[in-house]
């Protein structure tokens, strides 16, 4: 695990964007794994800005998002699908058919998880997977206790996760209780992983990760089992 420290959120985001752009230009049909939340917003802003300058095209890029809230989808302002459209997909030259995210409104959630996992296997492996770090060590929405062998599945969100994400909703009771998430196994299949760490209160999760102890009670520790992980730390925000 390679760890890089940055003096600002902007420099961390710029570095992450440059790395993705390099891969997009090297690979004929790049497959990116994407996260939502506050951490990657600067990265997406930078990708849009580089696209507007003519530096990068997303025409041939395929994307897979990590997760989606159960019950939210196309028409909901707080769905992760809407977030991705607002911050990246609708702002660049993506082929909409190449943007994949679990369908949180599927009637049969089990079937939806299997469909998403099969699509990942068919189109993958993911060339670069972007991750954020949850305060409790979650990656995707794999909460503490999730076995490392899990594939895409439905998860009951931790109350701490719902509280942390309530900043996007009018109250914590509005935050959905479940989500569909790529599993730890699905994430570890990626060729390369970029874990972005930024935001108040992430210092203890980062310390835990860097202690190198591997435990399913701290899902991000599974990343020690992958040999191409770079952790980008915005040390100004910790
Ligand atoms: C989001 C996701 C989560 C977030 C994590 C950190 O798609 O999978 O694991 O990356 O909760 O969220 P922020 O960046 O808001 O601190």
TrEMBL record:
Residues 17-228 form the Glucosamine/galactosamine-6-phosphate isomerase domain. It comes from the Bacteria. One of its GO terms (biological process) is N-acetylglucosamine catabolic process. It is an enzyme of class 3 (hydrolase). Keywords: Carbohydrate metabolism, Hydrolase. Its EC number is 3.5.99.6. One of its GO terms (molecular function) is glucosamine-6-phosphate deaminase activity. It catalyses: alpha-D-glucosamine 6-phosphate + H2O = beta-D-fructose 6-phosphate + NH4(+). InterPro entries: Glc/Gal-6P_isomerase, Glucosamine6P_isomerase, Glucosamine6P_isomerase_CS, NagB/RpiA_transferase-like. Catalyzes the reversible isomerization-deamination of glucosamine 6-phosphate (GlcN6P) to form fructose 6-phosphate (Fru6P) and ammonium ion. Belongs to the glucosamine/galactosamine-6-phosphate isomerase family. NagB subfamily. NCBIfam families: nagB. This is Glucosamine-6-phosphate deaminase.
């Amino acid at each position: 695990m390679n760890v890089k420290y940055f003096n600002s959120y902007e420099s961390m985001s710029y570095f992450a964007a440059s790395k993705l752009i390099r891969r997009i230009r090297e690979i004929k049909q790049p497959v990116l794994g994407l996260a939502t939340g506050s951490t990657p917003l600067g990265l997406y802003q930078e990708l849009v800005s580089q696209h507007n300058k003519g530096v990068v095209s997303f025409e041939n890029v395929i994307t897979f998002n990590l997760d989606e809230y159960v019950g939210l989808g196309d028409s909901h302002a707080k769905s992760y699908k809407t977030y991705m459209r607002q911050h990246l997909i609708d702002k660049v030259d993506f082929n909409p058919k190449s943007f994949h995210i679990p369908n949180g409104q599927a009637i049969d959630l089990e079937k939806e998880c299997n469909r998403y996992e099969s699509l990942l296997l068919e189109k993958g492996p993911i060339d670069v997977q972007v991750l954020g770090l949850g305060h409790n060590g979650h990656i995707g929405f794999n909460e503490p206790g999730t076995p490392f062998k899990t594939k895409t599945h439905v998860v009951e969100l931790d109350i701490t996760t719902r509280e942390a994400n309530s900043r996007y909703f009018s109250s914590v009771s509005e935050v959905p209780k479940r989500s569909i998430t790529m599993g730890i196994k699905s994430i570890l299949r990626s060729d390369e992983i970029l874990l972005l760490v930024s935001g108040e209160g992430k210092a203890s999760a980062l310390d835990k990760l860097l202690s190198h102890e591997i435990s399913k009670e701290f899902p991000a520790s599974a990343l020690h089992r992958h040999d191409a992980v770079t952790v980008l730390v915005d040390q100004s925000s910790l």
